[in-house]
Structure formats: C-alpha cells, structure tokens
C-alpha cells in the first residue's frame, strides 16, 4: 500500500465503495442492483471499474474500502487482483485502511481468500441469513448450513481475524424456535461481528408477489419486535455490543466504512448504480451498463443523478442517520458542523419525546432509548 511521502500534497481522506453487481442467483427478497447469468460481462465490467477510478485519480486517500453487491466474492481471483492494483494506482491507501468484502458461502474458495489477504483485505462479512435449511430454500439461497460451517472454518484456517455474518429475522418460515436455534449456532462460531436485519418486503421481488397473492404471510409487528428484543438480549449475553440498530460487534471490529454512512462522512462509490456523498453533494451512477460504459468512454463521470443539499437538509439528515447509532451523537459535533445550538433549536421536540420515553439526552449528547429504537419514527417526523 502506498503511503504519503514527506512533502506530498495532502489529499482528502474518504471511504471507497466498489459495487459488484453480479450474483450466481438472485434471492427471493432482494431488490438490489444485481444481475445473474452474466459471467461473460465480468471482465468488461472490471475494465470499466478501473476506467472510472482513473477519472478520480490522485484526488483522494482512503481509510476504508468496501466491496459490496451483488456478490463480490463471485468475481474470479484474478479479476479482484486487477481491481485492487487499480485502487493502489489511483488512490493513496492509508496504512490502517479497513478493507472489507461481502461474500456468499458458495462462492468462497481458498484461492480467493488467499488473494484477498495478499491485497490487504482485513474485514470479511458472509451472507448467511439463517442456519435453517428450509428457511434458506424459501429465501432462494444457494447454500446450506453445512456449507457455512465449511467456509467459516476455511477463513479461520487461512488467518482471517475480523469475521462477521449477516443474519435475517422475521422471515415467514422462521418462528421463535428457528430464531433461537439460529443464534445458538451462530454463537458456536468464531465470529466477532453480526449484522441482523429484519425482513423487508421489497417491490418487484418474489416475496412481494407471494404476499400479494396470499401464498406467504408476513409476521405480525409484535412477533417481529419480540424477535428483535431477543436478538439484542442474547447477543449481549455472548459478549457482543450493539452499536447500530442492526449491528453488533465483539471488541474493536465495528464497521468503520458503514459508520461513514451513518455519520454523514464523505465516501465515493465506484461502479454501476453506486452512490457517493461528498460534502453537500449526493450523486448516483447510471444503473444501465450501456449508459455507464458510454459516459466513461467519453471521459465523463458516469453520474445519472446529482443533488446538492441545503445546510438545513444536511442537518436533518445528520440527525436521522446518527440516531441509528446507539450512542447517538454529541451536541458539540452538530453545533460546530452546522452552526447551530441544537438544544435551543430543537428544545420543544426534545422535551416532547423525552416525556414519551423515546429519547434521552444530557448536556453532552442525545440518543434513542430502547423504546425509541422500536418506534422512533414520530421523533423523525417532528424533526422534519
């Protein structure tokens, strides 16, 4: 990794997100920008990722790099090598850079993991969703429980230290017994991070179609809330601390990259449909291959949507995103960043919602209570 040399101009430090839009199979709940049966397009896509990076060459130094998708681990090892070498060429990678990759169990191989480690990857997240094979089949996942065990053992044998999994709850096939068993099995594995998401029924997915046609029922809100509280309680008992609504960590392995999103810090998104946030501007790349490639071929940033937010809009966004973090935020930070006195400006809203038991605050900062984490939407509406 290249480091800054004495006398070299200081570049802005940001996070870099790389979108890999390819999957072996699309899950039944997924509405992400992903494509299946397009292996023949992967080489071309990697070429254009590198061309897009060149447009930003020399502008930034990186303290986080995050490969998301899609399924980044679906790329061949040599394709990942090309991407990492391009990142090293066009950006300064700081020596303590967090480099993360999302993986699916069925696409993890020894060759790929060794490649990741060689190029500095130090944070690994595996999409598991459940350890119940019937639940996995309904979700459209390709792996089973045994595959998860095998691939996690491989990762640990090869020296991976920061290893997490994604799990999902409130799945129609998942009652409390399945949830409890999922957590029991997860706690037997050498993990230090868990992202636990509630199932959302997204538009234009098989799950939505099955709900609309009566083939599938979503769980009641009360059962979903009971599941969430059980997850919080059990993971805490096993040494995980919750630092965000859906994220739990053991020790110092919180996702530095994802915290950039919640803390409204700058990040650059490279790839099809990738989002970026630089100061007061949000922009999103084209979502169609031809449009994305065409603009890059013309030497232009492949941006489809660009939006400059006002200071007031940014302030509201800062409040809502930061309150996803269990520690909330400090008044000194928001006051300095937006030139306000938070306690004075929002006193009426704060008093109302503290009485309702949704928030708590002191002279230093504000955070959601346990009740507020469940039903905090009214607070957001009042802030807006």
Protein architecture, described:
By secondary structure, the protein is an alpha/beta fold. It folds into 2 domains: 12-261, Aldolase class I (TIM Barrel); 311-383, Arc Repressor Mutant, subunit A. The protein has helices at 42-55, 77-90, 110-118, 133-139, 145-157, 176-187, 206-212, 221-237, 256-262, 289-297, 311-322, 331-338, 342-345, 347-355, 370-375, 377-383, and strands at residues 12-20, 22-23, 35-36, 60-69, 92-103, 123-129, 163-169, 193-198, 241-244, 247-249, 267-270, 275-278, 281-285, 303-308, 329-330, 359-361, 365-368. A hairpin with a 2-residue loop joins β12 (275-278) and β13. α1 (42-55) packs parallel to α2 (77-90), α2 runs parallel beside α3 (110-118) and α6 packs parallel to α8 (221-237). The longest helix is centred in the middle third of the chain and has 17 residues, at 221-237. The radius of gyration is 22 Å and the shape is globular. Residues 1-9 have low confidence and may be disordered.
């Amino acid at each position: 990794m290249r480091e800054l040399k004495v006398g070299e101009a200081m570049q802005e430090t940001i996070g870099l997100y790389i979108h890999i839009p390819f999957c072996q199979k699309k899950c039944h709940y997924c509405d992400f920008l992903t494509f299946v049966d397009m292996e023949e397009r992967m080489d071309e896509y990697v070429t254009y990722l590198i061309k897009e990076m060149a447009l930003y060459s020399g502008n930034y130094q990186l303290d986080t790099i995050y490969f998301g998708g899609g399924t980044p681990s679906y790329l061949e090892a040599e394709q990942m090598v090309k991407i990492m070498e391009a990142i090293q060429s066009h950006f300064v990678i700081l020596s303590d850079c967090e480099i993360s990759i999302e993986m699916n169990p069925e696409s993890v191989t020894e060759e790929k993991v060794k490649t990741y480690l060689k190029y500095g990857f130090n944070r690994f997240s595996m999409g598991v969703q459940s350890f119940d094979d019937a639940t996995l089949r309904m979700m459209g996942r390709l792996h089973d429980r045994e595959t998860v065990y095998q691939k996690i053992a491989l990762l640990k044998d090869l020296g991976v230290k920061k290893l997490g999994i994604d799990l999902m709850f409130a799945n129609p096939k998942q009652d409390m017994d399945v949830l409890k068993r999922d957590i029991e099995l997860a706690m037997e594995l050498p993990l230090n991070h868990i992202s636990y998401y509630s199932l959302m029924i997204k538009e234009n997915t098989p799950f939505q179609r099955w709900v609309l046609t009566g083939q599938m029922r979503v769980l009641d809100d009360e059962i979903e809330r009971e599941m969430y509280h059980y997850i919080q309680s059990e993971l805490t008992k096993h040494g995980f601390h919750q630092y965000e609504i859906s994220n739990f960590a053991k020790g110092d392995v919180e996702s530095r990259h994802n915290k950039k999103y919640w803390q409204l810090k700058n990040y650059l998104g490279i790839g099809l449909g990738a989002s970026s946030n630089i100061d007061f501007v949000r922009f999103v790349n084209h979502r169609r291959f031809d449009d994305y490639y065409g603009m890059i071929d013309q030497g232009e940033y492949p941006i489809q949507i660009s939006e400059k937010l006002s200071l007031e809009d940014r302030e509201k966004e800062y409040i809502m995103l930061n309150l996803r973090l269990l520690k909330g935020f400090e008044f000194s930070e928001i006051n300095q960043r937006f030139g306000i006195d938070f306690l004075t400006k929002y006193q009426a809203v704060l008093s109302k919602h503290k009485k309702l038991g949704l928030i708590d605050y002191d002279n230093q900062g504000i955070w959601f209570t346990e009740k507020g984490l469940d039903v905090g939407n009214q607070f957001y509406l009042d802030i807006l």
